[in-house]
Amino acid sequence: MTVTGLVKAEVMGEFDRAAPHYDRLVGLDPGYHAHLRSAAGLVARAVGPGARVLDAGCGTGASTQALLSMLVDPEIVAVDASAGMIDVARRKPWPDSVRFVAAAIDDLPGLPALGVAGTVDAVFAAYLLRNVPDPDTTLAALRGLLRPGGVLVLHDYSLAERPLPRLTWTAVCCSAIIPAAWLVSGDTRLYRYLWRSVREFDSPSRLRRRLLDAGFTRVSEHPARGWHRGILHTITATAPPGPRGTAP
Description:
The chain is 43% helix and 21% strand. The chain has helices at 8-26, 32-46, 62-70, 83-90, 135-145, 163-185, 189-200, 204-213, and strands at 2-3, 6-7, 52-56, 75-80, 98-102, 120-126, 146-157, 217-223, 232-238. It is globular, with a radius of gyration of 17 Å.
């Protein structure tokens, strides 16, 4: 299966190769970590102390750190399909309440040893859904991992249905992100893919509809401000009250 011209294995391979430089590149965006913390704050509003949280698509651990900074004594299972990203994340200092797992999100419901199916209070998925082969399959997997009434917080680039966000995204990628990738790593393939993947991904309204079609309820949109306005969105949704996140 392809994702904007790359087969799934190629996308993961590109993330593996980019992993050693990834933190440096995202750090060039002064709002990157602040936006992650703001999105993690929506998780914190929905759960209490000691919550069990799945950090889906954790990358090198920036989203994991955002969760730790906003939640009170959480237990975090951080998962990513890129072994390279997980390796970088594991080398950082973490409390014992954080566990990193190299696995595809769609495989998690079938991993009973992980013990997360139907037990997670919240899922935080930052920059994940755009990079999976089948978003609907992934949403079904995430819904099955949440406890009844658990919250899903999606944080991703999703271009509003207006010309300006699309023009701004292309201008930023071509003038800053892709050249910075070349300077830092000498390789721009992943970041050219990321530029295209955002342009081809759901609009915010389409993403909300996708969540409703997947059986989630109470879907709400939280757009970013500044130059990210119309480009970066956080969307919250709630798993229905049936067993293991399924409809009654």
